[in-house]
């Protein structure tokens, strides 16, 4: 039994606690506030906050959300976390009003912690000293607001961070019709600017560069009207953003095929016009990778407000301030014709994110801790400390939610502490290689150090645990029969008549077409359309309970039964485009992967390592980042 201390009772800390307790470790969690929930229980969860990830995609794999598929409010998600804690009886392992002031690693490998406890009966405090074999840090990436940009130092009006944005400020803006500058176009910037645009006609958003935007629902309709309607009405599973970004067919494509489709989609009238315009401008320097080269704002409210004329958006690399005057240099006005570069503001709202610092973690001798998650293997295991110090909640998926990443890491940590798994001996070197690859991959957002690819990250950790999902044998056989007919038809069509293919490959075309059609029909029937759901539905975390340690396939069956294939699939223009693009590119990638894998395997055996820029782009996106093992079985598994 290992003594484990967890710091922070947000969703990531809770799931870490649950996995440690379930694995038989002696675990305690310290939370400095008076309740669980982390950011969702604090003022940082600004008014009217709706999640940008669906409730099913935010749910832990062994505790599916029983509510309909929708976008939760912060309060609803907090209620889910309360239910999760009750279900697994976690509260008895949590000490509230307990702030960890220091955690010191001794030469003997044991952690000594000083915890300041606030008495509940009076105002007195006392210090609790605790020793532990392992420390899990789950304090979140939203702890310390980033310092204001230096270019705003001359501003003399009111300045607040989004973590301070509240109803009182909104009421003041409405009453005084204040002139407000919102800095940043991430999810908080989109929400804040759209809300303030309803309260004052003088709201401006400043962006250093245009942002790439993904809508919550894959259409051009008003987003918040759909969110409200979705509270009482079931929406098709494939209408949610994560259906297009986390499905396994997309993950099976290479990054270029995946990215080019996004650019094609933005050039059609399927999505909000302003959203498409901003996304095209944002990714103009990454024509092949597009949204895969940058962080994506999963919220189109700012685009809608801009299109309706309720706010303006200025794109300028720099700004200078004096008093309440701001001058935007080399400025472009998004979706407008104004060329003015100077504005007066009463207040500035900084939606500029947060920074990471861990001054309370103290290491022996000259050993130091990098606060950059990309320096930690799998954004979790720091160099030289992977046996006793773990970070969960610092892998922010390009698509999908942070809690499920933390859950997968927690399952892995629990196995490591039980001695059932080992970290790779060269895990620190692997972390550095992945950090370099990630900076190059996310070339338009290289300094967002928590950014990871949802599918590749989950799959990488799952393969170390042994819980990567596998489909029933009948599904595997049907999928391979289908691919075999595709390959044979390709040979028939590509071989010139003067040079017929070998006898083994020269089957008549008509029977091949019939087998292809029959196998396609089988996808919709076999196991209630399991292959279709695997390829085109969101890849929810519950898939990782199908097999391996901690398996509970009934949970997956229950979730999939709630999304009837015929009722939960909307045939929309966007979905039709996705299918028409994905199927042929999927075929091409499956065939291309055979020689790519063979070359990769030979070079690996010989000890050669080609530059990442050569080998990563053509391989399936699932294996492009995060040290995800590419195996022979991947050539025939759907």
TrEMBL record:
- List residues traversing the bilayer: 503-526, 591-610
A Pfam family assignment: FMO-like
**InterPro entries attached here?**
FAD/NAD-bd_sf (IPR036188), Flavin_mOase-like (IPR020946), FMO-like (IPR050346)
Q: Which domain of life is it from?
A: Eukaryota
Q: Which SUPFAM superfamilies match?
A: FAD/NAD(P)-binding domain, Nucleotide-binding domain
Q: Do you know which Gene3D superfamilies this protein is assigned to?
A: FAD/NAD(P)-binding domain
**Annotated keywords:** FAD, Flavoprotein, Membrane, Oxidoreductase, Transmembrane, Transmembrane helix
> In Gene Ontology terms, what is one molecular function of this protein?
N,N-dimethylaniline monooxygenase activity
What's the family?
Answer: Belongs to the FMO family.
Q: What is this protein called?
A: FAD/NAD(P)-binding domain-containing protein
Record the organism. Fonsecaea nubica
Lineage, please?
Eukaryota, Fungi, Dikarya, Ascomycota, Pezizomycotina
């Amino acid at each position: 039994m290992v003594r484990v201390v967890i710091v922070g009772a947000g969703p990531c800390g809770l799931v870490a606690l649950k996995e440690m307790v379930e694995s038989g470790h002696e675990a305690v969690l310290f939370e400095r506030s008076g309740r669980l929930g982390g950011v969702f229980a604090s003022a940082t969860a600004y008014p009217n906050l709706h999640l940008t990830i669906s409730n099913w995609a935010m749910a832990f794999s062994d505790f599916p959300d029983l509510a309909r598929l929708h976008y939760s409010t912060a309060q609803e998600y907090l209620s889910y976390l309360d239910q999760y804690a009750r279900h697994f009886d976690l509260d008895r392992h949590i000490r509230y009003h307990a702030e960890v002031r220091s955690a010191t690693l001794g030469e003997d490998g044991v952690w000594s912690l000083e915890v300041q406890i606030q008495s509940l009966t009076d105002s007195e405090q006392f210090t609790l000293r605790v020793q532990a074999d392992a420390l899990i840090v789950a304090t979140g990436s939203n702890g310390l607001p980033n310092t204001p940009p230096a270019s705003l130092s001359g501003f003399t009006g009111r300045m607040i961070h989004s973590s301070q944005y509240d109803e009182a400020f909104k009421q003041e803006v409405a009453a005084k019709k204040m002139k407000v500058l919102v800095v940043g176009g991430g999810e908080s910037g989109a929400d804040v600017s759209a809300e303030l645009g309803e309260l004052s006609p003088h709201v401006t958003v400043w962006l250093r560069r245009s942002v790439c935007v993904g809508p919550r629902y894959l259409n051009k309709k008003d987003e918040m009207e759909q969110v409200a309607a979705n509270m009482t009405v079931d929406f098709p599973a494939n209408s949610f953003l994560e259906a297009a970004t986390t499905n396994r067919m997309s993950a099976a494509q290479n990054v270029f095929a995946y990215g080019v489709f996004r650019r094609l989609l933005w050039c059609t009238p399927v999505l909000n016009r302003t959203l498409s315009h901003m996304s095209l401008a944002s990714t103009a320097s990454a024509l092949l990778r597009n949204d895969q080269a940058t962080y994506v704002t999963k919220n189109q409210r700012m685009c809608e407000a801009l299109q309706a004329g309720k706010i303006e958006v200025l794109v300028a690399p720099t700004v200078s301030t004096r008093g309440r005057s701001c001058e935007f240099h080399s400025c472009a006005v998004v979706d407008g014709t104004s060329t003015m570069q100077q504005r007066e503001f009463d207040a500035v709202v900084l939606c500029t994110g947060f920074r990471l610092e861990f001054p309370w973690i103290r290491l022996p001798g000259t050993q130091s801790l990098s606060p950059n998650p990309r320096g930690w293997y799998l954004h979790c295991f720091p160099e030289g400390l992977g046996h006793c110090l773990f970070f969960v909640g610092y892998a922010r998926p390009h698509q999908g939610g942070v809690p499920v990443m933390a859950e997968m890491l927690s399952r892995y940590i629990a196995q490591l502490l039980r001695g059932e798994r080992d970290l790779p001996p060269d895990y620190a070197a692997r972390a550095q290689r992945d950090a370099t690859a990630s900076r190059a991959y996310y070339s338009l957002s290289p300094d967002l150090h928590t950014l990871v690819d949802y599918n590749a990250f989950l799959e990488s950790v799952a393969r170390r645990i042994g819980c990567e999902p596998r489909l029933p044998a009948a599904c595997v056989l049907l999928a391979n029969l289908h691919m075999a007919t595709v390959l044979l038809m390709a040979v028939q069509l590509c071989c010139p008549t003067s040079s017929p293919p070998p006898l083994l490959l020269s089957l008549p075309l008509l029977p091949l077409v019939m087998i292809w059609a029959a196998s396609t029909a089988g996808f919709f029937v076999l196991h209630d359309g399991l292959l279709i759901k695997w390829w085109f539905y969101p890849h929810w975390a519950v898939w990782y309970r199908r097999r391996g340690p901690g398996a509970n396939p009934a949970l997956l069956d229950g979730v999939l039964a709630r999304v009837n294939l015929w009722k939960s699939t909307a045939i929309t223009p966007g979905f039709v485009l996705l299918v028409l693009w994905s199927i042929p590119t999927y075929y091409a990638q499956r065939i291309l992967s055979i020689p790519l894998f063979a070359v990769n395997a030979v070079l690996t055996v010989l000890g050669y390592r080609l530059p990442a820029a050569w080998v990563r782009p053509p391989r399936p996106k699932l294996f492009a980042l995060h040290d995800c093992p590419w195996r022979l079985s991947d050539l025939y598994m759907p």
